[in-house]
Structures are given as C-alpha cells and as structure tokens.
Amino acid sequence: MSADRQDGLTARLVVTRGDLHLDLRLTVAPGQVVALLGPNGTGKSTALGALAGLVPTAPGTDVRLGGHVLDGPGVHVPSAGRRCGLVFQDLRLFGHLSARENVAFGLRATGAPAGAARVAADGWLARLGLVDRAAVRTDRLSGGQAQRVALARALAPDPALLLLDEPFASLDAATRRRVRGVLRAAIGSRPVLLVTHDPEDVRDLADDVLTLADPDGTGTVRATRTTRDAAPGPASGPDVAAVVLAGGTARRLGGVDKTALDVGGRAVLDRLLTGLRPSVPDVVLVADPGTATSPWPRRVREDPPGSGPAAALAAGARAV
C-alpha cells in the first residue's frame, strides 16, 4: 500500500456557494467506498470538487489524504498535486482528442512517457469494452461510451483518491453491471467517494452511505452516515403506490443523457438518468426534491405500454 493511502481520507469541508452552506465531516478508509446521496442542490458535486481542489473552501476546512494535509490553515495543495481521479458529471473530455488520447493525457500529466501512456490507455479502454473506439474522437462517441472514457481517464494514473460523480448514469443496465465490476476490481487500497442516485450502485459497491439534506430549507446542509444495509432502499412490495403522468413530453437538459419530463406545462420530474426509454424495465427517473420523500430514484414504466412519454412514478411522492 502506498504511503498516500495508508490512512485514507479524513476531511472537514466548509463551503459557501450562493445559498448553499456546506459543513461536512467525512472519513473514508483505504479501500472503502462511501456513497454520497441526497436531493439535487445539497452539495454532493460541490463536495467532490472541494476535495479535488477545484472548488474554493472556507476557513475551518481540513483535508488530509494518507496523512498529508491538502487543505488547512495556510495550506492549499493545487488540484494537479492531489493525485485524485475524478469523474465529472459532465465528463469534461477533450472532444477533439481520441478516446486513447484522453486517457493517455492523464497519464502524461503524471510524467509517464508517451508510448507507455498509450499502452496503458489502451489497456483501460479494453477493460471497459472500448477497444474498438480507442481512435475515435470523444465528441463522436455515444454518451455511454464517453462516460467509460472518463472513468478510464480517472483510473489510469493510479490515483490515491477516487471521486466519482454519477459515473454510470449514461450506461445501459448490462454495461453498468460490467463497468461496476471493473471498478470494484480496481479500487484496491484507495478510498472512494461515489455520488449516485442508483440503489444498485450502493448495493454493489458501497460500504457506507452519507446522505446530505437541507431539512430546514435554509441552505444549510447536514449529513447523516449509515451503513449500506441500513440505508433506505427503493420502494417495493405492497407499500408501492403509483402516480400516473399522462400526456407528458420529454425535453433534453444540459449534460450527458439527462431528460426532464413535463406534464401540464411544468417539469414534474427532475431528470432521467439512462435516457427516456420508459418501456425498458430499469429506466430510472429522479423525483423533484419538492415532491420526494426519499432520495432514491423511482422505477418508471409506460402506462399503458407503447404509449410513449406517459409514465408512472412509483411511490415516494406526495402529489404531482
């Protein structure tokens, strides 16, 4: 185990961005995966950005990785010096470069020779099922392919800390399972923070769960930590109710494969994680925080089958 990973991650993050006030304490042991859950706007992506050195923090922040201080009184290690592998929600690939060149870029930034970086990049792309797309520019890849390139870029330099912001959101069910397996095998002794809306990610990867919430609606976010088994799961069984949203229309949001569902002239669902295909059993929509009683996504079906954008939101909603 490298020295950077012996003590894992310990952090207090203090961040103020607009109306958001985040004061988050967390520890992630070597080889441990902690899932970050919570409604949109509670600072999950902000927390990852702060840990990576990309989001300014406020006094009181203390970030230590493997015993080394990254942020603290009089100390701020720039992002390039933190050895963090980060998958952004919007990916941030270089569209004019090939998949291979994007992955090799991260390796070259750590000092790897060009030839070795290309070989290592091809190895990661092969593990993630992209061997035949290595030479293709990333702006010509599908959303799911681009997301796998971003994950390969994060893993290839052997980071001391892995920060993943919805890394499987654009993948179909079969590819998600395969990629989760690759990630599980690659975790090793590094601490991992995983932002997700998918309970299957938590079930398959996470050891603990940290749920962020703004219970008072004041913008002050609080965190509750539980074990994976104690975390709330998706609704199922006889307690499941259904709210039918007939006559809705889909519209694309910014980012990768994100779609809103509008009913009656207003957006009632926040975003679709896997593309608007409600007839596929594992399509997931995330409820708007104002109507959700749980941070978990809800399964969606066509009702009736073949009716297009009409969908049913299973449980967890007071009203639409």
TrEMBL record:
Ranges for region Disordered: 217-236, 291-320
Residues covered by the ABC transporter domain: 4-243
Keyword annotations of the record: ATP-binding, Nucleotide-binding, Transport
Coiled coil ranges: none
Biased composition (Low complexity): 217-234, 308-320
Entries under SUPFAM superfamilies matching the protein: Nucleotide-diphospho-sugar transferases, P-loop containing nucleoside triphosphate hydrolases
One Gene Ontology molecular-function label: ATP hydrolysis activity
PANTHER family linked to this entry: SPERMIDINE/PUTRESCINE IMPORT ATP-BINDING PROTEIN POTA, SPERMIDINE_PUTRESCINE IMPORT ATP-BINDING PROTEIN POTA
Protein name (Swiss-Prot/TrEMBL): ATP-binding cassette domain-containing protein
Organism: Cellulomonas triticagri
